Amino acid sequence: MKSDDDLLIGDLWYNRLPPTEPRGFAGEMHSCVMRYHNGQVEAARGYGWWRGEFDKTVRRWPPGVICMVSADGNPVYTDEGQLQYCQRYKELAVYSCNPLLPIVIDNGDPLSSTAALDRSPLLFFHPPSQPGVSQAVHPDSPMGLGPAPHKYVAGASPSWAPSLVPEIYSNPYTAVASVGLAGELPIVLGLMAFSEHSSVTPTFLGDGRAHGRWKGGFWCHNEAPKGYTNDIIDALSDQEDPRGFFISIYLDPENPDYSTAEHIAEMEWRGILVQDNK
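Below the sequence we write its predicted structure tokens.
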């Protein structure tokens, strides 16, 4: 985020919020492209994230894409001069703000949007057909039939809290045991990204001594996240600038039978992305 009070706005309750315009951001530091395959996250070699420079005339960046890259990391073009890019599934941004508004979601790409994005706090849908499953959602998510989403998880004592979801989202009512976390895949990946302070590489790919922390459908990490805004528990709501991750999901052209919009939606809304450790 830019250190500019004109672009970092607050709500009526003085919660400091992310910018509402692309020009309010300083840009992005992108990771390598990653692939989820057979319950394991791995580097997707031969693919890279590409986004053009900031356009001062329209005051925003162009949309980013995952495209094929050469051995030296440069984008690969067709004979007609077009980028060889993958098909996007969905994308959104996840921010850590402050203790009173811990997680905020932008439904879309905040760097290239031509209008203010739909923004909401992190919500959880409790599907009646899956007791104990917490689906991370925003108001426009394709939730099934059931009650309105809540600001707390569906089950009691989830094994992935507070290492993945802040403890403030604990369910204060239910005695039903937590079964797992599902819902919007970019939201879940965004929550995982806060596990470390500066780099997502050890979180998803490991550090050479161990695998990544999301493995076989389980979140294999118990420590509190290091990437939240100055410790989300102790942050001062009127002084801390929000911190966020932009997550863009694409279909894998090397796995056309399984990497489809239908299969990913099945994982999100009828499966479990992070199972509880029993």
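The radius of gyration is 19 Å.
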